[in-house]
Amino acid sequence: MSKSKTAYPKEFLQHIQSITNKRAKIVIDHILKHGFITTEDLEYTYGYNHPPRAARDVREAGVPLETFKVKSKSGKSIAAYRFGDISNLQLNRIDGRVSFPKDFKNKLYELGKGKCYICNGQFAERSLQVDHRVPYQVGGDINKSRDIKDFMLLCGSCNRAKSWSCEHCENWTAEKKPTLCMKCYWGSPLKYSHIALQAIRRLDLHWSGDEVKYYDAIRIIAKQNNIELPDFVKKIIAKIHKR
Asked: pTM surpassing 0.85?
């Protein structure tokens, strides 16, 4: 159930009224009216194909949001967002993140050889997104100097995966230590000790061009052996390791 605007502190209302980011305002106005907003609302009502990015715009503007689960119209479990603890409002983040100049992205693209830094897939530059290695929600603009090593390019799929993982990490919600982010897979995919503070290792593979035939082949074999594809790949690696 939504609250009346008068139920919110004056300072909170003044802050959200000063936010100019379009996506953030849509999320905020919808929550004010309905109490929460779902990923389904963001995608089908407002046309955002990456709902977590819209939620991050709100958080980056200093407004606390919490994520929870609801049922979609088809009965599927989906994410929804509502205001979090208002006492955690950050008044110094009205403008959110600063946009990146084209030449900055060009340089990242050249350094990464046109690949996503997570899955190593090859993409056109327009399909890759500039990402803070340390999430803005944790470090703010600690990298205002725009040091190239503090950023990487991610494809949409990997960016969404990182968003979900980070938003459910204790370092995001409480600790807010940039050093922990830089020891995480999502901050340093080539050298890390944890994923969202958990003792996990991850390998993201992207198959393209002539490689697709190899993917299709192992998928068929895995299905014939009634084994899930990730488990089958692990089994192959374990078998080779034992030789």
From this structure: no
